[in-house]
Design goal:
The protein folds into 2 domains: 3-33 and 91-180, Diaminopimelate Epimerase, Chain A, domain 1; 36-87. β2 (121-127) and β3 (132-137) form a beta hairpin. It is elongated, with a radius of gyration of 23 Å. The model has no long low-confidence stretch (mean pLDDT 85). The two termini are 16 Å apart. It has 8 helices and 3 strands. The chain has 202 residues and is mostly helical. α2 packs antiparallel against α3 and α7 (147-162) runs antiparallel to α8.
Length: 202
């Protein structure tokens, strides 16, 4: 994201919180699943292909040190390219789900979503690479907001994650705040306890 998009998202969180006592923490991750093993395997495969080619074409007059250097370079290049592969190509669905779940729970703790005075924190997490979203609620929210409403919010956010767009995410966050206000109305003594700027790590 660029600075303009970050400001848009921050403004959306501020607007959402202006209508409810809930505290919204927004996290937008490039990806949750790191896939380092897949990238390494891709690099090793490319290195083996280059080595096999060098051995096959024995008539090429190439020194052993140069051959070794080319193989190592091919391995490094393959590893780098492996990291660029879409995560949906390199992992099973369950693995991706687990990776996003892990990031969401880590962010919930790291950014203090459970440490507001009224326990009304809401974590909104989008993992762009996996096209997945997570909504986690503190106990003050689950006690006041019906489960059906929370599931509706989750479904809407998942729709945003499927085709990530900053403007659509902003609208979804604002709508979340407005609807949360029906169950958790803002009071005169409410203070902003958590950061409004979007987080890009967990």
């Amino acid at each position: 994201m660029d600075d303009a998009q970050r400001e848009q998202l921050k403004a959306a969180v501020e607007q959402a919180e202006s209508t409810t006592s809930a505290e919204v923490v927004l996290v937008v991750l490039p990806r949750s699943f790191q896939g380092t093993g897949v990238a390494s395997a891709f690099g090793a495969l490319l290195a083996l292909v280059v080595l096999a080619a060098a051995l096959f074409f024995e008539d090429l007059e190439v020194s052993e040190p140069l051959t070794l250097s080319v193989v190592v370079l091919a391995g490094a290049l393959g590893t780098a390219l492996g990291r660029l592969l879409p995560v949906r190509w390199t992992a099973r669905g369950a693995t991706l789900n687990d990776a996003v779940d892990e990031k969401a729970h880590a962010a919930f703790s790291r950014f203090g979503v459970s440490r507001t005075s009224k326990r009304t924190g809401i974590l909104v997490l989008l993992s762009v690479g996996e096209r997945q979203a997570r909504l986690l609620f503190d106990v003050g929210v689950t006690e006041q907001v019906p489960a059906a409403q929370r599931e509706e919010w989750r479904a809407r956010l998942q729709g945003v994650a499927a085709r990530f767009d900053v403007a659509t995410l902003c609208a979804s966050v604002v709508a979340l705040g407005q609807q949360a206000g029906a169950f958790l109305p803002r009071s005169a003594d409410d203070v902003n306890e958590l950061a409004d700027a979007p987080q890009e790590h967990a």
